[in-house]
Description:
- There is one protein chain.
- Helix content is 36%, strand content 21%.
- The protein is of the alpha/beta class.
- The protein folds into two domains: 9-121, Response regulator (Rossmann fold), CATH 3.40.50.2300; 140-234, Winged helix-like DNA-binding domain superfamily/Winged helix DNA-binding domain (Arc Repressor Mutant, subunit A).
Amino acid sequence: MTSTAVPDKILVVDDDHAILLLISRFLQSHNYQVETADTAAIAREKFTRFKPDLVILDVNLPDGNGFNLCQEMRSVRTLVMMLTCLRDRNHILEGFEQGADAYLTKPLDLPVFHAKIRALLNRHLPVVEFPVASTFTQALITIGNLTINGDRCEVTRKGNLVPLTLLEYQLLYFLATHPEKVWSRQELITSVWQNQLGETVERKVDVHIGQIRRKIGSPENQCIRTIRGKGYVFQHAPTGQD
Length: 242
């Protein structure tokens, strides 16, 4: 649980009633508020009413696809953890492409499961100091028409909210607040998410970078520069790629 006195709210979505019962009892024993749903339709209704802090979501539902649900729920910046039997690389990457903040596979390891939940709910942004001459500040970073607001944890372009997932926001914020340094993919996994991406699949970083570039648009997206064979670097002004 986070440091707040109000229990965190978790919505668990799975068509397996035994899994729902196991997870709900486990979470309630750790003082979380829990709601469950066994279909996509019920999940949407409870998501709107319950307003969870975290959704734990299976992929295979009788009336829908968990990946699509993930994308819907992440559009309002709710944390989503995928929990599924699908363990191949393509499904894992699909989960992250649709906005998942974590991806776990069944059978469930309860201590690891709880550790992942705590890591998501207690995740903090890095605190960074800048030289006086820098045009960047931790609270507000402006690049062309793009504004990164560190206080509100949001990104806007021409005043319109850019729909980044939490992982995408954290990656962009980290790079923007650590400019002019080349970061390898593994360094980003370690520094931004403290290895909370699950098994180290470095291509996940490429997927998130691609999504960020697509969403923030040109020319601002050229601030994130690919250094072949090394990683990524954030530069103060848009530039071409190597």
